[in-house]
Design goal:
Elements lengths: L17 H12 L1 H18 L6 H21 L8 H24 L9 H26 L3 H4 L7
Helix pairs in contact: 1-2, 1-5, 2-3, 3-4, 4-5
């Protein structure tokens, strides 16, 4: 909802602030709770903004579902390779992939949609990294005795 009032530098490029909450919930409460938070956020924000069942809703829902699928798959790989930051980047790329898939199949059924991939990939990398670092900082600050322990960026 916050992103609805933030001007976008490029059409369709948003920072994904809500994904910070999803990643935090994933690390603290598990995948099932994170999935509920993510899907309910899509429905609640679309209802509050008057976009329910619109193309915007479809794009948001597809991005959330593909992103959750990517997070679920990454959780089943060796944990030592996936920090919150890497999960955030993977989720950002998956989110963009889900949205571009809907755009290509439904909204703009033309091959020229593929020209957008580099722009959105750079945005996914940048915002995925930023959101992952913010989430890691939130988790670090929640850790008891954070100053004395100085843990590594937690992995799932």
């Amino acid at each position: 909802m916050i992103e609805a009032v933030i001007p976008s530098p490029l059409p369709g490029v948003k920072p994904g602030i809500a994904n910070i909450v999803t990643l935090y919930v994933l690390t603290q409460y598990g995948f099932a709770t994170a999935a509920w938070v993510s899907i309910l956020r899509v429905f609640a924000s679309s209802l509050l903004l008057g976009q329910f069942l619109s193309p915007t809703f479809a794009l948001s829902l597809s991005g959330a579902i593909i992103s959750l699928l990517m997070l679920w798959l990454a959780m089943h790989l060796p944990k030592k390779y996936f920090s919150v930051v890497s999960l955030s980047i993977l989720a950002a790329f998956a989110h963009i992939a889900g949205q571009l898939l809907i755009v290509r199949l439904w909204l703009i059924p033309h091959a020229s949609v593929s020209y957008l991939i580099p722009i959105f990939a750079i945005a996914a990398l940048f915002f995925g990294l930023i959101n992952g670092l913010i989430t890691a900082k939130l988790i670090y600050n929640k850790t008891p005795n954070a100053e004395s322990n100085k843990p590594e960026i937690p992995s799932i």
